[in-house]
Amino acid sequence: MDREERLRKAVLWLKKKDPITKRIVQSVGPCTHKPVGTPYYTLVRSVISQQLSVKAASTMESRVIEYYGNRNRLPEPSVFLKLSKVQMRKAGLSFAKIDTIKRIAHAYEEGHLSDKKLKKLEDKEVLELLCGIKGIGPWTAEMVLMFSLDRWDHFSLNDLILRKSIETHYGISKDSKKEILEFASGFSPYRTIFSWYLWRAV
Questions:
Q1: Is 110 exposed, middle or buried (0-12, 13-18, 19+ CB in 10 A)?
Q2: 115 noted as active-site residue
Q3: Binning pLDDT at 50, 70 and 90, where does residue 14 land?
Q4: How confident is the model at residue 70 (pLDDT cuts 50, 70, 90)?
Q5: Which of 2, 123, 150, 159 is catalytic?
Q6: What's the fold here for domain 39-149?
Q7: Residue 70: beta bridge partners?
Q8: Phi and psi, residue 73, nearest 5°
Q9: Start and end residues for every CATH 1.10.340.30 domain found in the chain
Q10: Which class does domain 3-34+154-199 fall in?
């Protein structure tokens, strides 16, 4: 079964789950969820965008690419490692973000991390490995899991927008994390696809 067929199957499954979910799916329309970037680029991009608006994050990413990238792509790990902190500050990055990006680059250069390795790991192992790098939190690791690695059965309890969407549509308080986690477990094996719809139904 190819990916598009699997996606249609997942959407049909969600429509049959319950009336509220069916309404959300029909309101949002066809699911266009697809992998976005490699784990490495998702990690670096997420660090750049931390605590910034979408517009500000896009501007800063463009600067990093313009100053140090190649062919409109973020720099490879080896490039980041050669740059001094002063050089990286010119793109507007804080020292905390610079340190985290350099840790990611070092992990890739040393072979502790690689896109190939991450693809082979189980979900829990991916989260543990990534969160073991200072500066990478659960949310960032989960986004790598759901989007870069295209894992279809994960729900990010750390994502406030998802919790707000569940509160709006299903009446479960966004602060009742345990209850939300239990509720979301009922959407396995398509929790990522369910999340995709929740993000668009806020």
A1: exposed
A2: no
A3: very high
A4: confident
A5: 159
A6: Endonuclease III; domain 1 (1.10.340)
A7: 73
A8: -120, 150
A9: 39-149
A10: mainly alpha
